[in-house]
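#struct-help
A.M.: can someone run this one for me? Single chain, 152 residues.
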Amino acid sequence: MIILKKVIATAFTALLVITLSGCGDKEESKTFTWSDGKTNVELTYYYKNDVVLRQTAKNTLHYDALGIPNKEAAMQRLGPISEQYKEIKGVDESLDYQDTYATETLTVDYTKVDRDALQKVQGTAFTGEIKEGISMKKSEELLESRGFKEVK
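D.P.: on it. Structure tokens below:
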């Protein structure tokens, strides 16, 4: 369960850095990846100037790395966490269970998200206010400090 919390926390690393920023005209994107050989995380940020508008995460979670013996046990352990996302405005999440791993796809639209509801989901954390804007630059710095690599 500790590993599961660590994986979920890693997937939400970008939610930790929030600062005031201005808006621009052209939307851009940056993608970052992290892997420990059993868990793969791909985060894509969509932003204007320095303000992150939305983020997608594609996570591959191998059951053995999470201490989960099989697909059925994974559905029991991960399913309730996944269900918490279904009720949150501005969040789309899905889990695709395979025999030895699950693939999670998560999209957070920061222009619509209910921060208070999202913060209640296991593994999410915030500092500051989303309404003030999430800094792409600070998110990038944080990700790189945690071992993420930008895909160019």
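A.M.: thanks! The helical segments are 2-11, 63-66, 71-85, 115-119, 136-145.
D.P.: also worth noting: DSSP finds five helices and seven strands in the chain.
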